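Dear support,

I submitted the protein below through the web form. The confirmation email said the job was done, but the results page showed an empty box. After a refresh the structure appeared. I'm attaching both so you can tell me whether what I see now is the final result or a partial one.
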Amino acid sequence: MAQFLALVQGYTALGIGIIIGLGAFGACIGIGIMGSKFLEAAGRQPELIPQLQKFMFLLAGLIDAAFLIGVGIAMFFGFANPLLSVIK
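What the results page shows now:
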């Protein structure tokens, strides 16, 4: 029983690492692509920079929100793992 409990905890920790790691990787890629496209558009049409900047910050917030939702789910499994209550 103790080995099965340790196995569930180990796989949960592995899942938490994957959720946070892939979420951070995806957020970094998304913000990098968005920033490069913003600079590209600002270079082409400098008069639209204030409008594009507004949308860029909005999208940066949404990208970070998606990552933070993943972190919240990972913390839920880390601190209040529902899988462990089934075993006990």
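Response: this is the final, complete result; the empty box was a page-load delay. The first helix runs from residue 2 to 44.
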